[in-house]
């Protein structure tokens, strides 16, 4: 079933007008025509940003301030809680982000709200099952993979502040023609863990946002090919350059977790008012936790050092008589969210059939590692810090071990330097 047919179904399900869903994936062709258009140059926009110039987002965990209590209620209609909107405003006032970036993050929150409602009603709106097409990774796309990608792309485009978007579901980064300032670069996995959809088990969305690269301006692209190269270069930035990262969990509740480089905050969607309300201020991943989350079905294909590590977790005598517990949802967002709250480690090692594992650096491993570090945890390939890796391709895969600091360090004691 062609993707636009799936979109039509989503339109019906989401009650959106036909015009609202432009065809995703329009790339460079219109660029030459717009060459003359007086778009602000990426470098100009960067200097206007109150960003910490040239410094990668702080990887140091941010301590919670003395009081994270909600502000006093003004009256009975005062939510008495911090919503995502008011939190973004506070970040702007603090100069951590600017108004244009706040618009981009709000558009991502809107996309997550839409996806939450589509996921919640998938079984009764004919949105379960396959879309009949494969994505660039050779994976059979679920209908909701395609729909979530359209929803995310639409929301980002509608801001006029995103210059380039790159999705797990799109082979190439997309140059956003509608942009008129900010030119932020946004990478995303619109629906992570989609193999869980039809069974109604947790899934999620993952995203990361960068400033446009100064080294390769979109302005100077003479033709479509150069533009595409510049788009790819803009997207392929190391995780330590992230300006923000986050995920949204679609499960027993819908929880949006994000960081703009100054701690990690979680917001739960209140279905009564349709707003994300702060529920997890200054998230800190526990320093250790006796929960490991690996797909042990791949055990025989792992390196010996990873096997030795996993075997060690199961030896009760090593852990005061109580071995580690195994938990695996099969959706990175769900397993990572639990790890952020309870501690422990999630891992997707390389294997003989997939030496770099399964997960994609740009829109899965780097955003999650940014969050882990902001919350006092770690993100490692087993050999190096995920955030230090310079991506060489948009859909590049790397092994991932992420979670509590002491747990990842213990893992690295098996894998590093061997
Ligand atoms: O089924 P496996 O091999 O354990 O893989 C599950 C992992 O793959 C993922 O589903 C990633 O892939 P998708 O983004 O394509 O869903 C992760 O969320 C999850 O942790």
UniProtKB/TrEMBL annotation:
GO molecular function list = fructose 1,6-bisphosphate 1-phosphatase activity; metal ion binding
Q: How does it assemble?
A: Homotetramer.
- The EC category is hydrolase
Q: What is its EC number?
A: 3.1.3.11
Ranges where the record places region Disordered: 14-77
Q: Name one Pfam family in it.
A: FBPase
Keyword Transmembrane among record annotations: no
Q: Where is the composition biased (Low complexity)?
A: 14-26, 37-72
Which protein are we looking at?
fructose-bisphosphatase
What does the entry give for GO biological process? Answer: fructose 1,6-bisphosphate metabolic process; fructose 6-phosphate metabolic process; fructose metabolic process; gluconeogenesis; sucrose biosynthetic process
Q: What is catalysed by this protein?
A: beta-D-fructose 1,6-bisphosphate + H2O = beta-D-fructose 6-phosphate + phosphate
Domain annotation Fructose-1-6-bisphosphatase class I N-terminal: ranges = 83-281
């Amino acid at each position: 079933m062609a993707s636009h047919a799936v979109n039509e179904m989503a339109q019906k399900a989401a009650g959106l007008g036909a015009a609202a869903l432009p065809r995703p994936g329009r790339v460079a062709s219109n660029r030459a025509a717009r060459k003359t258009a007086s778009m602000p140059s990426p470098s100009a926009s960067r200097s206007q940003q109150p960003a910490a110039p040239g410094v990668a987002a702080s990887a140091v965990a941010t301590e919670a301030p003395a009081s994270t209590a909600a502000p006093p209620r003004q009256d009975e209609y005062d939510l008495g809680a911090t919503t995502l909107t008011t939190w973004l405003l506070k970040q702007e006032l603090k100069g951590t982000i600017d108004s244009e970036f706040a618009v981009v993050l709000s558009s991502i929150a809107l996309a997550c709200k839409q996806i939450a409602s589509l996921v919640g009603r998938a079984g009764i709106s004919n949105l379960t099952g396959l879309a009949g097409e494969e994505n660039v990774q050779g994976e059979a796309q679920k209908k909701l993979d395609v729909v979530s990608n359209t929803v995310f792309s639409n929301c980002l485009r509608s801001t006029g502040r995103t210059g380039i978007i790159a999705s797990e579901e799109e082979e190439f980064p997309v140059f956003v023609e509608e942009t008129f300032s900010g030119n932020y670069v946004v990478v995303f996995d619109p629906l992570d863990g989609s193999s869980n959809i039809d069974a109604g088990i947790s899934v999620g969305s993952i995203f990361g946002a960068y400033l446009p690269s100064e080294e390769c301006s979109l302005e100077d692209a003479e033709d479509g090919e150069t533009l595409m190269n510049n788009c790819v270069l803009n997207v392929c930035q190391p995780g330590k350059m992230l300006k923000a990262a986050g995920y949204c969990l679609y499960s027993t509740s819908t929880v949006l977790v994000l960081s703009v480089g100054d701690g990690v905050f979680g917001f739960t969607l209140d279905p009564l008012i349709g707003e994300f309300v702060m529920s997890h201020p200054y998230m800190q991943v526990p320093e250790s936790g006796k929960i490991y989350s690996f797909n042990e079905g791949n055990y025989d294909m792992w390196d010996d050092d990873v096997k030795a590590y996993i075997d060690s977790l199961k030896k009760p005598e090593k852990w005061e008589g109580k071995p580690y517990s195994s938990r695996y949802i099969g959706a990175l967002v769900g397993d990572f969210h639990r790890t952020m709250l309870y501690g422990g480690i999630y891992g997707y090692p390389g294997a003989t059939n997939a030496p770099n594992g399964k997960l994609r650096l740009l829109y899965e491993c780097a955003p999650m590692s940014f969050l882990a570090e902001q919350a006092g945890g770690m993100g490692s390939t087993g050999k190096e810090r995920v955030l230090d890796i310079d991506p060489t391709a948009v859909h590049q895969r790397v092994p991932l071990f992420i979670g509590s600091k002491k747990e990842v360090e213990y893992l690295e004691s098996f894998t590093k330097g061997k």
